[in-house]
Design a protein that fits this description.
cell membrane, Branched-chain amino acid ABC transporter permease, transmembrane, amino-acid transport, about 290 residues, transport
């Protein structure tokens, strides 16, 4: 029973990170109706920036805030410089842009930082919290950081005019443009927020998986599974899906398929959701009259 509790709590810690990345994917999907395949590589590059600033002598939390800010700018620039030119392009062309961006960022990170695996510091103490043997202090801190980010996002979307404008653009860009909302600026804001959220997830997962250009490949599969399970167009569903996938990954990986095959849990979830319920648990089913 204690071992099961340990796996569940560890899964919740990983699930918080998957929830952050799934939420970033949902934000991009709501704005463009496309999945950003480069989300993990953007988070990886942001984590390398944080590592460089920490090695340069900046305190961890100063580097953390600076990285989130720089990632926000990076995401907004990607939308304004690259994706804005493809607004009216066929869907396949935009998908190829996302894949090209993934490969470009991965190669640039390997060229600049090399493919040597590095350690990344955790801001949380190594000792268990209150002598708790079931979950590490970093895991508790990662869950807490994720929940703070989610609460800030909820407040932004629920109580600020910019958040309401961004929700309107995600729901209906043409009507938003007619009432005076600058759709292009809101899309850049959405990309910036998604990149900032990805940066937080990258800095929380790096102490666990270590830092290298391919660190996010497996993590992004879990995030895709989380977004699909909860509903690719539902932010709340993405958060639920992230925590659910984290727990399922740990429990099934430990007691059913083995830790070496844990990644198959994400693949089976993706296939199962797409076959049984493509809209996910909380997604909306759209019906169009023809």
């Amino acid at each position: 029973m204690e071992a099961l509790l340990h796996q569940v709590l560890g899964g919740l810690a990983n699930g918080g990170i998957y929830a952050s990345l799934a939420l970033a994917l949902v934000m991009i999907y709501q704005a463009t109706h496309l999945v950003n395949f480069a989300q993990g590589e953007m988070a990886m590059c942001s984590t390398y920036l944080a590592s460089a600033m920490i090695q340069a002598g900046l305190p961890y939390w100063v580097a953390f805030i600076a990285t989130v800010a720089l990632s926000f700018v990076m995401g907004a620039l990607i939308q304004r410089v690259i994706l804005r030119r493809a607004e009216r392009a066929p869907v396949l062309s935009v998908v190829i842009i996302f894949i090209g961006l993934l490969l470009t960022l991965n190669s640039l990170a390997g060229w600049v930082f090399t493919y040597t695996i590095r350690t990344f510091p955790s801001p949380f103490p190594a000792e268990p919290l209150f002598g708790n043997p079931y979950i590490g202090t970093h895991d508790v801190g990662a869950i807490g950081t994720t929940l703070v980010v989610l609460l800030l996002l909820y407040g932004f979307f629920r109580f600020t005019s910019l958040g309401l404008a961004l929700r309107a653009v995600a729901e209906n860009p043409e009507s938003s443009r007619l009432v005076g909302i600058r759709v292009g600026s809101m899309l850049a804001l959405g990309w910036g927020l998604a990149a900032g959220i990805g940066a937080v997830a990258g800095m929380m997962i790096a102490p666990v998986v270590f830092l290298d250009p391919n660190m996010m490949s497996g993590v992004m599969l879990y995030a895709f599974a989380a977004a699909l399970l909860g509903g690719i167009d539902n932010p709340t569903g993405a958060v639920f899906g992230g925590f659910a996938v984290g727990v399922l990954e740990n429990v099934i990986g430990s007691y059913v398929v083995g830790t070496e095959l844990k990644l198959t849990v994400a693949l089976v979830l993706i296939l199962g959701v797409l076959v049984v319920r493509p809209t996910g648990l909380f997604g909306k089913t759209l019906v169009t009259r023809v």
